Amino acid sequence: xxxxxxxxxxxxxxxxxxxxxxxxxxxxxxxxxxxxxxxxxxxxxxxxxxxxxxxxxxxxxxxxxxxxxxxxxxxxxxxxxxxxxxxxxxxxxxxxxxxxxxxxxxxxxxxxxxxxxxxxxxxxxxxxxxxxxxxxxxxxxxxxxxxxxxxxxxxxxxxxxxxxxxxxxxxxxxxxxxxxxxxxxxxxxxxxxxxxxxxxxxxxxxxxxxxxxxxxxxxxxxxxxxxxxxxx
Length: 232
Ligand code: SAH
What we know:
Strand order of the largest sheet: 5-4-3-6-7-8-9
Number of helices: 7
Oligomer: single chain
Structural class: alpha/beta
Bound molecules: S-adenosyl-L-homocysteine
Shape: globular
C-alpha cells in the first residue's frame, strides 16, 4: 500500500473545512439576515479554524463565540457578518479595526475593503494575529499593539471604523478620525446591556443609528472603560 501523500490529505482536509464554512455562512450568517454577497463570500473564504486556539478548533464553524486566550473571545460569525455589512463597503475603503483579537475579522475585512489597519491592546494576541496575516499573505492588513481608543492618528482619516469591544460612550478620537461621509460601527454599554451603534459623519455633526443588541468584551483604555470591573 502506498503511504498517503501529505498534500492529498491537506487538500481533503481543506475541502472539508470549505464545506463546513459554506454551511456556517448559510445557517448562522445568511439565515440570520446578513445579505451583502461580498461579505458572505469573504466569510466563505476565511479559514476561521486557523484563527481559533487548537482546543476549540472543532467548534470553529459553529455559531458561537469562542475563547481565544487572555480572557478574550472571537465573536459569533453572525455578528462579524452583521457589523461588516453595516459598514456598506464597496472595496475601495481604508478601514480601522479596534480589537484585532485573533485577526479573523481583519482577514474578512481584507477581502472586502482596500486597506485594513487593526489595533490590539494585548501583545500576545497581536503577535499571533500578525503571524497569521503573514502566513495568509494578507498584504493589505497592518496590525499594531496600542490602546485603540486613541485611534491610529498617522493613518487617519478612515472611511470606516469598526470596534470589536464595547465602550461606555463614543471614543472622541475615533469620531475625529472618521473621514467625511465615513461610518463607525461600535457596541456601546456594559457587559449585559449593550447596543450596536452605527455612527455617520454628516457635515460638522454626527448621526447615530441603533442597530440592535450586542454582546462584546469591554473596550479598555483612555477613551473606553478604565478597567474591566467598571464595565460589569
Ligand atoms: N475581532 C476579533 C475579536 C475581538 S475581541 C477577532 O476577529 O478575533 C475584542 C478585542 O478587543 C480583544 O482582543 C481585546 O483585547 C481588544 N481590546 C479591548 N480594548 C482595546 C483597546 N483599547 N485597544 C485595542 N484593543 C482592545
